[in-house]
Design brief:
Helix content is 34%, strand content 20%. With 210 residues, it is of the alpha/beta class. The protein has one domain: Rossmann fold. A nine-stranded mixed beta sheet has the order 4-3-2-5-6-1-7-8-9, with helices on both faces. The model has no long low-confidence stretch (mean pLDDT 89).
Length: 210
């Protein structure tokens, strides 16, 4: 999928919108535009599901991503990490997530990287908006401070306006999604997006399902 330069040239991007509006495809496509080997912190699904989603969204053109699985440890003991899969203690342990991300990035210093967080809402469920906001800001500063871009996904429908603005604040660009027909069908086939940055906002365009 071809994304506007306002998104691909940004340092920190939040993809925000209702459920079933193509956010995952935009997320993985954006990571692919930055690097062939992204580091993805998965806060809602186990690592195999994220690998399949990344391969599907990028038509298999990217390398196997490095996944920081923040879910499996909540229901499995004695997990053993590999070079491509690391495990954090759970979506409620933001300190361990941050430490695991840092460890992975330190090991790959000097490489062409990009970082993605698959979903911010699970972090809010386990902690709070304020704690998630602080975590997002620290992570964005850490990643961009090393010269790497970062993307994260949120869900508009879960938050009121003040909390939504708080979660958007650490990011310099927001990709906003919605159904093509706000009163009609949802899903990638009927979704559109636009890119909002400090200078301007693009027109709405369709989320490609190809």
């Amino acid at each position: 999928m071809m994304l506007p330069a306002a998104a691909t040239e940004a340092d920190a991007v939040l993809i925000d919108g209702p459920f079933l509006t193509g956010k995952r495809r935009l997320f993985h496509s954006l990571l692919q535009s930055w690097t062939n080997e992204p580091v993805i912190a998965s806060t809602r699904h186990v690592n195999d599901r994220i690998r399949r989603a990344h391969a599907q969204a990028t038509d298999g053109d990217s390398e196997d991503p490095i996944i920081i699985d923040c879910v499996s440890a909540t229901h499995c003991d004695n997990l053993v990490g590999t070079q491509r899969t690391r495990y954090a203690a759970g979506p409620g342990n933001l300190t361990d997530i941050g430490t695991t991300v840092t460890d992975v990035l330190e090991l790959r210093r000097g490489k062409d990287l990009a970082v993605g967080v698959t979903a911010l809402p699970p972090l809010v469920v386990y902690t709070s908006v304020e704690t998630t906001f602080k975590f997002a800001r620290i992570l964005v500063n850490q990643v961009t401070g090393q010269g790497w871009p970062i993307a994260a996904v949120s869900a508009t429908s879960m938050f009121d306006d003040p909390n939504r603005r708080a979660l958007r604040d650490p990011f310099d660009v927001v990709i906003e999604t919605r159904p093509m027909d706000p009163d009609g069908a949802t899903g990638t086939e009927g979704a559109v997006f636009r890119v909002q940055c400090r200078e301007n906002t693009t027109d709405w365009r369709r989320v490609s399902s190809a």
